[in-house]
């Protein structure tokens, strides 16, 4: 039975050669020879964020999730982290993969909702007081911090705010005052309408103007009893707030928000010309600049020790700078004992703003480079072991046809490697431990295609067809089974990829990729190779080691071969007369 494939198997092999040359040619042009490895193989931190339901029970939209992903990406890139991978997964997950194992500060940063407010500080106390507090209606705390707080990443009592230079080079006067961590406010008399305990969730604002707010006795009593970590408060900009620094060292009584994060247009970290300390440069919007001027006029008039305002992020006090003079122009700097990392962290949070939805940190997985290398080695050895078992079975059961199995697996490996490398360069695909598992499973899928074809070919020979004819008729029947089996595997991989999250998607992706490569290899390499081998004497005449010998197939003889007893006997040669022909 002659077909195009039978008469011209070399054409398909040439097509395969062109594909291989093309793939490796692209790898050469891009100078990319190694696949990108996932963090579980090279070491790093993977953070999975799960979006919370919106207020009122609404679900998170795809646009909100993508917006949050973009903001997180800006934060991570702004922190100077290279090769970070931020992706959405499902309807409410964001995966952040960052190289390097020590990323504690980054874990905090990516999960922050960044509800950013500027609030006036009315009182500050040590979170672990040395004596039982007994606050008075005057607002003067009876418990002082046991020690003066030292500058850190979050609390900087020495931090000051000074105006920045105008475009024409004129500089406003600098504020050099020292922040007192335990100011003693002198509140104005309050009215019942303005007397609302800050700890009461959902309470009305103390005043429509946050600059006129004064904490009353009930608020101060509630603040004295407040402990860092207590729940029940909502970070409402229209209400007072009890908050602590990130370390939980100090707690603060804060007024309603005087500025929001949306009033900032830009923030950056740097060292001023001629200076040596890092600072954070702020630039406000037009409306925000007016609010900031009005706020600094009010705060600076309060006097030394009471002129603090807090920068509050997600109900945590990030910094408490002081103000001694009004700051016009909509630009300012926060200076103090910042390290480079602290200044950049604060600038990133101020610059990139709030996430559209709140997130829970569902999981944080950190893998050291050493462990990643060990897992990569284990995955490679597992693949080699699986491949070796398949090859051993092929030669034991199919004998010479095992050559086809080994050659086909080799071609599939070459195509898979090139595909993984190029996909890493094109779409950022990274090979994970789960992905390696998908590649190992694919060895069995590819071997299954050979088994289907070889068994169909042997059945055709047993039915009395010649080997060459069996190669074609067996393929015509086997290819439908191969396509059906690979289609099921591909469908399973697609469904798993859509529904799964995290590293399981890597398994599904490599499983689907290798299934497609299996179909390509069996059609343009395995089948043409068997066609060519059938034309050789070794396979065509059923050599004992070919795997197609009569004894191995369970038949008396191959079709077209005669029984030994039926072969004509050799005619004895007639001796010629010695004297020549008569």
Structure overview:
By secondary structure, the protein is α+β, with helices and mostly antiparallel strands. The protein has 15 helices and 13 strands. It has helices at 4-7, 9-30, 39-42, 62-78, 104-111, 217-225, 286-300, 340-352, 369-398, 402-427, 433-462, 467-499, 504-534, 537-540, 550-553, and strands spanning 44-51, 85-89, 93-99, 116-126, 160-163, 241-245, 250-260, 264-270, 278-284, 309-313, 316-319, 331-338, 359-367. Helix 4 (62-78) runs antiparallel to helix 5 (104-111). The two termini are 53 Å apart. Residues 1-6, 129-207 and 562-567 have low confidence and may be disordered.
- Number of distinct beta strands: 13
Strand content: 15-25%
Structural category: alpha+beta
Largest sheet: 5 strands, mixed, barrel
What is the succession of H and E elements?
HHHEHEEHEEHEEEEHEEEHEHHHHHHH
Average pLDDT number: 74
Overall body shape: elongated
Could you provide a short overview of the structure?
This protein has 582 residues and is an alpha+beta fold. The chain is 43% helix and 16% strand. The strands form 3 sheets. The protein has a 5-stranded mixed beta barrel with strand order 4-7-6-11-10.
Question: What features would you highlight for this structure?
Answer:
four-stranded antiparallel β-sheet; 582 residues; disordered N terminus; five-stranded mixed barrel; elongated; alpha+beta; 43% helix
